[in-house]
Amino acid sequence: MTGRYPPQRRTVTDAESRALILHRNIVEVSYNTQTAVDSRHNLILHYQATNKNDFKALFPVALAAKQVLGKASITVLADKGYFNGQQLSQCEEQGIITIVAFKEPRRQSAVPTAEYLIDKFSYDKEKDEYTCPRGKVLRTNGSVYKKSTVCEIRKNPTPYTVKHYKTKACMQCEAKSLCTNNKYGRLVERNEYTEPVGRNNQRVIKQQEVYRKRQAIVEHPFGTIKRGWGYTFTLLKGLEKVDGEMGIIFTVYNLRRAVSILSVPKLLELLKGWRNRCFASFSDRIRDKLSPSAEVCFEGRENQLQKMAA
Fold it and tell me: The domain containing residue 221 runs over which residues?
C-alpha cells in the first residue's frame, strides 16, 4: 500500500478504488456510481462510475441529464450527500431546478440561545444588511474573505468567499449574553452561495411530496439490478473497466424497462428504424471525407451492411 495516496485510501488489489462512506460510519473500499433517472419511466439517462463521494457530483450529473433530454430546464431531486452550495449555484445558472435535501444547521457554539440563531435575523438584499431580533442593524465593511469547506473524506476542499456583518450596538445590548459568547459582539457570516442555497431549501420545505418521490425514482434501477438480478458487485477492476461494466448492466436494464413499457414488437420496430437512421447518418459523414474512387467501394460495403441489418 504505497504511492501518493494515504494507505487507508488505496488497496493492493485495485489501486483506483477508494475508501468511501456508504452510510454514516460504514466505510468500504469501493467505487461509486452516479446515475440520473427519469421520473416517468425510471430509465437511466446518464451514468458515471467514480471513486469519489457525492459531494461534488450534483452539477455534472444534472447537466448531463439536461443535455440528454434536450430541455431548457429540468428539476433534480437528490439526497443530503449532494448538498453543496457551489453545486447548487452552478445548477441554478444552467436552468436546473434543484430539490436537494439540506443538512440541519449545526448549533452555533457562539450562540447561547435558539432565539438568536441566524434564521431569526432578517436580510435586506438592497441595503446588504441584517437586522437582529432586537431591531439592531448589522452592516458589512465590504471586505470579502476566502474560506474553504472539506468534504466527508477530508479531501478536495471547496473554496468560497464570505462577508462579515456586525454592529457596535452589541456592546450595550441587554440581550448580548443571549445572542453571542463573543466578547466583541455578534458576527454574522454570509457566503456567496447563501441565496441559491436558501431557494433550494425553501423548495424542499414547500415541496415535500415531490421530494418523497426521489427514492421511488432513483432507487428503482438499483433495486432491480442488485436485489432482483443479484448484481451486488463488479467483476472487473480499475475505474475505466468498472465504468464499462456498469454501462453494460445499465444498458440491459434500460432495454428490459423498454420491453415492459413498449412490448417486444414495438421495441424491435423502433430499434430497426433507429438502426437505419444510424447507417444513413454514418454514411453521410463518411462520404464527405472520401475520394470519388473510394466512395464506390464504400457504397458496395454499405449495401452489404444494410442487407445484414435488414
Answer: 7-103+203-231
pTM (predicted TM-score): 0.79
Residues 182 and 210 in one domain: no
H-state helical runs in 30-120: 58-69, 85-93
Based on the fold, state whether residues 33 and 155 are members of the same structural domain: no
Q: Residue 298: its pLDDT value, please?
A: 45
Per DSSP bridges, beta strands 32-37 and 26-30 are unpaired
Q: What is the residue-averaged pLDDT of the chain?
A: 85
95: three-class secondary structure by DSSP: coil
Q: Give the Cα separation of 123 and 194 in Å (integer).
A: 11
144 CB-side CA count, 13 A? 5
pLDDT interval class at 107 (50, 70, 90): low
138 within some domain: yes
pLDDT exceeds cutoff 50 at 182: yes
Residue 285 inside a domain? The answer is: yes
Q: How many domains does the chain have?
A: 3
Closest CA to 92 of 189, 210, 191, 194: 194
- Domain assignment of residue 239, yes or no: no
Measured distance CA(12)–CA(190) in Å, rounded: 44
> Side chain identity at 187, as an amino acid letter?
L
Q: Label residue 241 exposed, middle or buried (CB < 10 Å: 0-12, 13-18, 19+).
A: middle
SS3 for 135-192 is: CCEEECCCCCEEEEECCCCCCCCEEEEEEEEECHHHHHCCCHHHHCCCCCCCCEEEEC
- In sequence order, the 6+-apart residues with CB closer than 8 A to the CB of 172 are none
- State how far the Cα of 164 lies from the Cα of 162, in Å rounded to an integer: 7
State how far the Cα of 310 lies from the Cα of 306, in Å rounded to an integer: 6
CA 135 – CA 137 distance, rounded (Å) = 7
